[in-house]
Amino acid sequence: REGCWAADDIEIFREHIQPGDMVLDVGANIGHHAVVFSKLVGDAGMVMAFEPQTQMFQLLNANCVINGRRNIVPVNAAV
Q1: In whole angstroms, what is the distance from residue 76 CA to residue 49 CA?
Q2: How many CB atoms sit inside 10 A of residue 56's CB?
């Protein structure tokens, strides 16, 4: 309805994440937040997205490709 999921969270992320930052997404699930982080850190930054569940990890990888997010490094591991 509002065009995005977790709009309040995204506003908080915008206040704290700068271009060039490195962000860890622990428990990335399908990568919604990882994609948001990726856009906020820009080409000079990086996002490490950790997801231990095989199916969710596969969806995370697909989400990175679909959204053209080359600065996300998906990691199939628990943290």
Answers
A1: 8
A2: 16
The SS3 assignment for 31 reads coil
pLDDT band at 6 (very low <50, low <70, confident <90, very high): confident
Of 49, 46, 52, nearest to 78 (Cα)?
Answer: 52
Whether 28 and 49 have beta carbons less than 8 Å apart is answered as: yes
- Predicted pLDDT of residue 2: 55
Q: What is the pLDDT of residues 41-52, one digit of tens each?
A: 999 999 999 999
Give the integer Cα–Cα distance in Å for 45 and 58: 23
Report DSSP state, residue 23. Answer: E
* Unique residue bearing structure tokens 């990691």: 75
